[in-house]
Amino acid sequence: MSALQIVWFKRDLRTLDHRPLAAAAERGPVLPLYVVEPGWWQQPDASERQWLFCRESLVELRQALANLGQPLVVRRGDVVQVLERARRQFGIDGLWSHEETGNGWTYQRDKRVGAWTRQHGIVWSEIPQFGVTRRMRSRNGWAKRWEAQMAEPITPVPTELHSLEDIDPGVIPERPCSELLSDACPQRQTGGRLIGLGELSEFLHRRASSYQRSMSSPNTAFSGCSRLSAYLTWGCLSMREVIQTSRTHSGRGVSSFESRLHWHCHFIQKLEDQPAIEFS
Hints:
Blueprint: E1 5-9, H1 19-27, E2 30-36, H2 38-41, H3 48-68, E3 73-76, H4 79-89, E4 94-98, H5 104-119, E5 123-127, H6 142-150, H7 193-207, H8 211-214, H9 221-224, H10 229-233, H11 239-246, H12 252-273
Parallel strand pairs: 1-2, 1-4, 2-3, 4-5
């Protein structure tokens, strides 16, 4: 299998506006990979309701990729070990992913992945997902850069993916690890891109006009807000497509919503620049 490209999905569970996927598909056969990491789901900021949302999104993503020719491959374990098995079995020409600003655990994991790629001479292409910039010495000009990134064209879905017939797609597990506690949440949101698109449309057409009045009260925010946070966090929707879709509408509510999307990236940028915030 020549020039195998691995696209490592993390919190970018979609096919539209997915630059790593599109770029990898231009280079050769693509193995779309998601690794269920028990160590991550044992962290104190992980919960069962988050996993259930993620799992639903993975099921939908697998079908979307299968429609292109190659379903999502799911493995459970340590990412470096999973990648090493793939290297020994198939050979890897390139590793592709979005940049991720996560917690201390994911940062250390990414450092290990980076060391592994350098050890084996594999190019790991990390592409920014939204308006967060790594290694900024100053935030001067950040807002202008964010606007430029949000105005960039939406990356289309690849026309097709080469089928990797000898690779078992694997099972999307019911639970990521046995240590994850039950976390009943009857009114939690359901994962997946299609529902996220429905929330976006319903918000812009029906609820945006009352957004400013309803977003700050616990009595009204449940239905008055955009309800898109989880879909942005897990990348079912891209920040760029949400911004560009919202700008086809008008009104004070939409403008206020756009400012919150700007804040979303601004505060992640603070964590990117000052990671000690997580610990002190």
